[in-house]
Amino acid sequence: MAQTPSIPKGTRDFMPQEMARRNYIFSTIRKVFQLFGYSQIETPSMENLSTLMGKYGEEGDKLLFKIQNSGDYFKGITDEELLSRNALHLASKFCEKGLRYDLTVPFARFVVMHREEIAFPFKRYQIQPVWRADRPQKGRYREFYQCDADLVGSDSLMNEVEIIQMIDMVFSSFRINVSIKMNNRKILAGIAETIGCPDKITDITVAIDKLDKIGLDAVKAELMEHGIDAAAVSKLEPILTLSGSNEQKLQIIESMLSGSEVGTKGVEECRFIFNAIQNFSLKNNLELDLTLARGLNYYTGAIFEVKALDVEIGSISGGGRYDNLTGIFGMPGVSGVGISFGADRIYDVLNQLDLYPQDATGSISILFLNLGEQESACSLKLLAQLRSQGISGELYPDNAKMKKQMSYANARGVRFVAIIGSQEMEQGTVSIKDMATGSQSVIGQSEISTLF
Amino acid sequence: MAQTPSIPKGTRDFMPQEMARRNYIFSTIRKVFQLFGYSQIETPSMENLSTLMGKYGEEGDKLLFKIQNSGDYFKGITDEELLSRNALHLASKFCEKGLRYDLTVPFARFVVMHREEIAFPFKRYQIQPVWRADRPQKGRYREFYQCDADLVGSDSLMNEVEIIQMIDMVFSSFRINVSIKMNNRKILAGIAETIGCPDKITDITVAIDKLDKIGLDAVKAELMEHGIDAAAVSKLEPILTLSGSNEQKLQIIESMLSGSEVGTKGVEECRFIFNAIQNFSLKNNLELDLTLARGLNYYTGAIFEVKALDVEIGSISGGGRYDNLTGIFGMPGVSGVGISFGADRIYDVLNQLDLYPQDATGSISILFLNLGEQESACSLKLLAQLRSQGISGELYPDNAKMKKQMSYANARGVRFVAIIGSQEMEQGTVSIKDMATGSQSVIGQSEISTLF
């Protein structure tokens, strides 16, 4: 026998039940995107490497899956180049295309390519796999889905308000309790400016983030290690010990940042969003959190991150406001705000909390056992009727032993087993076994749709 | 300005309206698969090249997209090998993985890998993209979707009957009139055997297929060119001039093939299927067609092909019965029957016949114009209510000129435009413009859901 085949490490097969659960996740997110007016687009799995390279840093370039050119990919390469064995350099000769690494760069490329066809503001969502040649580990795959919604071409803070509503609707649909954390890049810039270290935003944010774990003194020590002097650190103290309601926090920050234009702007933005969101009864808590440091090179205003409350897991959703999506492709001034849902982590949370709806099983409503040719013909007629009413079902295809057919019914997790034997044929009936309760009954064939 | 970015040739971006139409196609096919008890699976985009190579012939190996190994892919390759510049040989050193070429080989690999977890008979469907490094041309892409359903682990002809019902339900759902053509590999084998040329199945089938175009004499001449002697050709004549109902055709073939065991088996199979299908009122015609030659190396029983009646286009669906899905991976005896729907061609047919349902637009039900901050807040509240009722809508995010907002409404193809200005705020009303009829009305804010 040949060697049992396998799949590349870091990739996955999805069995029917996993698919049913994943489809539940995608369709829930998709439905919310659609309710808020986002339209779906898709981009090719492959992009030109010139589109992808240099967009994710040096490390990212290495993590791109590159596709070898068809035909004679050695053309135009000298023997010396070949013998140099410079893997990265020669990859750019052997390969013109790569698999997409995220949905953001392809979206930026899409906006630039189709700018004449798009009606701005453009609200798009995209649910597609991405690929990264990362070292696979638990919970980290080389192929995984991203679910992104972005609105580009509008500076209105109403968009941030709607993003928060979307996050809230997605997670309340899933019945996952979350904390929606919000920060603002402008506040962070204001803080760094105010203490006289405008280039230390990241260090400050990372240090603040450790407060709970290592305590105030250790944080101060760390800040000084990063070259922030004692006077600056003491100015930071109100931030480090920030507490209270969102409004209380904002008041403290506001007075601290009164001398910084950008900081004051950040406080105003946050306050507008908190005020506007009060018009809606969110199911989850929205919290100002100055420790959010995601995408600091990219985001320019609000930053969002979502944490599940009942499961220990990292962020399960995140996003923010950016000012320059398409500058890398020579089209400046395209600002927007976006949100990304982590389908794989949401899958883990739903599994751990066992929150899937009953029908996310990928199973069927009814299985007819096969007792012979004539009986099957009769079963198929009833099945045709049920299917025309949107009820899924099947006939066991072979006249196999009862035990085998019933064990298939169990394995498939069907709701009802239907039996038409010679007696049922004669009497125009069908015997029904409810697989959930184990109860059995005999009903008229014409009544079969009343089961559902 | 940087060069405008582009996408690799043979690939496509899908705009919102195209996506809405594609989603309509996929969801229609998916719904039928589910009604018939098929469960969805997914396999990784990448497979090991050892899984893919040699499965699609020599030409197919060249059309595989190969993914360059990460890290130092020159390791273990000698200078001599490198300088040989043997593109195909070195590809197998540089690359361990490739993009899937179809859904059949990955499915076979899946069945072998998961045979202990699967409940047989196993009914799976799969809707995923495949990639081929083919020369792109009109209607042929390097990335395209396949929609396959297969049932493995059952020899029952009931499965063929259900496949035909599925085809009929898919195309009647689309309102595309089709001819469902059926052939049987065993009949073709019986014919070749009967005329004494068992190895000439393909030549005979291809020649029969030309009858309409080139006439009887030319077909006979072509058969003789292929080394089939005059006596054999004259034995073939009843097949060449076959006409009448399916049953009439079967009677002629039956008497001609009475001396061939395999041929007689093929006739019996066809007759069983035609008889069983009479229990169902098919919307489309099922026709015995001996010229079907698809997958002759692969199929062993029934062969199906579907042609659209009102549009000139090739086959839009096809499938058949096979005896040995997984032998290539060392697991013999897995027989099954499958069907594949060509989403891209169905898309072209629906476009040409303009058969999309009205709601396959990717648009929203209502757009609120933005007349200022307070008015927007009021609009967002109504939107929250509508969305909780499953109605999609949005607020134009900026307080832009009316003309700009209305031209966005037009471009988006929204159904209703809602306006809340100061007067409407005061009176608790909302002005509605029906974009289909152009009619305008004023309704109470609490009545807004009655629009839908």
Question: How are the SSEs placed, and which strands pair?
Answer:
2 copies of one chain form a homodimer.
Chain A: H1 16-35, E1 39-40, E2 46-48, H2 49-52, H3 57-63, E3 66-68, H4 79-84, H5 87-94, E4 95-99, H6 104-113, E5 122-131, E6 143-152, H7 158-174, E7 178-184, H8 185-194, H9 201-209, H10 211-214, H11 216-225, H12 230-240, H13 246-256, H14 261-277, E8 285-288, E9 299-308, E10 315-322, E11 336-341, H15 343-353, E12 366-368, H16 373-388, E13 393-395, H17 402-412, E14 416-419, H18 422-427, E15 429-434, E16 440-444
Parallel strand pairs in A: 1-5, 7-8, 12-13, 12-14
Antiparallel strand pairs in A: 2-4, 3-4, 5-6, 6-11, 7-9, 9-10, 10-11, 14-15, 15-16
Helix pairs in contact in A: 1-7, 7-14, 8-14, 9-11, 13-14
Q: Can you tell me about this structure?
A:
The structure is a homodimer of 452-residue chains. With 452 residues, chain A is an alpha+beta fold. Chain A is 42% helix and 20% strand. Chain A is built from 18 helices and 16 strands. Chain A has an eight-stranded mixed sheet. Chain A has a five-stranded mixed sheet with strand order 13-12-14-15-16. The first copy, chain A, is globular and about 95 Å long. The model of chain A has no long low-confidence stretch (mean pLDDT 93). Chains A and B meet through helix 1, strand 1, strand 2, strand 3 and helix 4 of A and helix 1, strand 1, strand 2, strand 3 and helix 4 of B.
